[in-house]
Amino acid sequence: MNNSPSGSLALEDLVEAFIKPVVARAMGGERGASSVRILREMVEMWVHLEKGSAPTAIHLVAGRWISAILKACPDLSRSEGIWAYSLMPGSTFSSHLLDRWLDGLVPPNDTTSEEQVTAMLVSFCTGGITGIMERNRSRLRTFRASPKHSAAGWPEKA
Known about the structure:
About 65% of the residues lie in helices and about 0% in strands. It has helices at about 10-25, 30-50, 55-70, 80-90, 95-100, 115-145.
């Protein structure tokens, strides 16, 4: 595992730590996939019973992952860290993986492994998160290059 200068996990390692156990269960046979589907359905039921609000336990777990993302990506705001986190469960607990929606689309002799699926999901989530950071950097460069702003980045006085 790679560590960032702040001592936190590198973003890719952090995302892999979230995704790998889910993919291993989902692709490890029907029993493992069923256990992950049941977990997903339980969370959805809690949200339904709480009238759209996630239970406190979900907030506590998500909060830890969000904090870790923000340590690995200090350029993200808290709000961006929350949305960045949402990429991970959103793609990992998807019906495509857990309910095998793609099975009818892949060739019958497909040999995509658990490791390959994990690597693709890690790339997807990491790319999304780094895309958010790059978007911020690009906006900042555009702001600083604007003729309406001084070299310090502050609006010029009229």
